[in-house]
Amino acid sequence: MTDYLNSTRKQFEYYKLLGEKTFAQVSDEQLFWQYNEESNSIAMIVKHLCGNMLSRWTDFLTSDGEKAWRQRDTEFENDITTREELLAKWNAGWNCLFKALDTLTTDDLGKVIYIRNEGHSVIEAINRQLAHYPYHIGQIVFIGKMVLDNNWTSLSIPRKTSNRAADLT
Question: Is 17:63 a contact under the CB 8 Å cutoff?
């Protein structure tokens, strides 16, 4: 089960990196761009991820993952104003997640924790977040692709190059 914990950490690190590679490509203005009023900007998604991570991973084994202090609805207000503020929230969330994840042992994996008063094994709770965060990071990447259009640099194998990539292995 140590392999599970190591694997999940690597997966979280990978998705964190995808977000950061997107941030590096977009302008400050593009971090706050919204397709329409019903859609989220990159900054709003980061704010939501931070709120979720702080709520879920603070006192992970000992308190409900939906903290009373969390203000989920405000996470979808576009009120981050600078790249630095966005990155501070991004890093605060991830630091909380990795700190909690790094304290877990294989003995903890079968324990039951609660999210909104619903019991989850630690493995289920980790898997829940491992599905949730990539969903939103995919949105961040997609927004980056939309705002950059032809200036987007692929984060994986660029289109029409997969045969060349196979030749390199």
Answer: no
Give the chain's domains with CATH numbers: 2-168 (1.20.120.450)
In three-state form (DSSP H/G/I as H, E/B as E, the rest C), the secondary structure along 22-86 is HHHHCCCHHHHCCCCCCCCCHHHHHHHHHHHHHHHHCCCCCCCCCCCCCCHHHHHCCCCCCHHHH
Q: List CB contacts of 90: < 8 A, sequence separation 6 or more.
A: 19, 20, 23, 46, 49, 50
- Burial of residue 92, with CB atoms counted within 10 A of its CB: 0-12 exposed, 13-18 middle, 19 or more buried: middle
105 exposure class (CB count in 10 Å sphere: 0-12, 13-18, 19+)? exposed
Q: How far apart are the first and last CA of the chain?
A: 31
**Band of residue 63 on the pLDDT scale cut at 50, 70, 90:** very high
pTM of the model: 0.92
User: And the tokens for 111?
Assistant: 């324990």
Cβ atoms of 65 and 56 within 8 Å: the answer is yes
Q: What is the pLDDT of residue 20?
A: 98
Q: Give the integer Cα–Cα distance in Å for 36 and 45.
A: 14
